[in-house]
Amino acid sequence: MTRHDDEWDPARLPDLAGRRYLVTGSNAGLGYFASEQLVRAGARVVMTGRNPNRLAAARAAVERRVRVDAHVPRTHPLGAVETLLLDTSNLGSVRAAAATARTGGRIDGVLLNAGTVHPPKRREETMDGHEVVFATNALGHYALCGEVLTALAATRGRMVWVGSMSTMISPYDPVDPELEDDYSPWRAYVQSKVATTVLGLEADRRLRLAGLPVGSVVAHPGYSLSGRTPGVRGVNEPSLGGRFADNLQGWIAQSKEHGAWPLVRALIDPAIASGEFWGPASLVKGEPKRGHATKLTRSPELGARLWDYCEQATRVRWPFERARRIAQG
């Protein structure tokens, strides 16, 4: 299928009725707005988060906001929402959530959005003994995809890894993925996003090699700020000062709602091929366009090294052969 970029309207998505998507980190920000956009297009969305109260508030917000628009003429019905507790920094939580998601129905796609955006000033470890930023942003998503790979194979689905334009500013090579030496909050964040992008592109290589009809795409949201985003009770409630500061950056920034556009397109557009990299048209803002990952993140050698590291750290081996048999029927 061929589609020109200018034919894609982020505000009028194709009919997703009958599709079911899992979105990590759905209680706020990009994950929330991606979930809302998918539900408006008719999908059933599994919203996940680690805080039950915030997750319940986010679900209520989606249902409230789509009901308000229910009177608008539509070409397809609205979707529905499920919630699922999932903490990507906790490997036990990842395994439990994946098992629940698999038994709850088909999985057409997974948006790997959850992440630590504001790392701690000093290095911290999870209960599994891993550096918290790398565990949350990269390790947990690697494990989650391995746990739901057979479900994605059954639907010929897709996984979308959320990268960051920060990797183009400070392309740190994660030779020390968990920063046992030389920790800093900025380095922890950027390295985790380099790793996320690398894993997404390496997943594409391995899925192709295994002959699996499962896609792996990387997308980033540009420069998306809460203060540029519509207020949503219980989800996005920036202070007046925060809005003022963020709006001063309006010429280079966009809303979280618009930042979710490339992520959603990467998840649902059938014209996008596995292994592609997507983001806003002007890098920092704009409608979703195909882009280019940095040279470092495209390295097969780095991909193989990080994959092996994640496999050992999580003790999750992706079941490629079993998934291939399921895909073949």
Automatic annotation (TrEMBL):
Domain of life: Bacteria
Record EC number: 1.1.1.270
Pathway participation: Steroid biosynthesis; zymosterol biosynthesis; zymosterol from lanosterol: step 5/6
Main enzyme class: oxidoreductase
InterPro entries xref list: Ergosterol_Biosynth_ERG27, NAD(P)-bd_dom_sf, SDR_fam
Membrane spanning residue stretches: none
PANTHER family to which the protein is assigned, alphabetical: DEHYDROGENASE
Name of this chain's protein: 3beta-hydroxysteroid 3-dehydrogenase
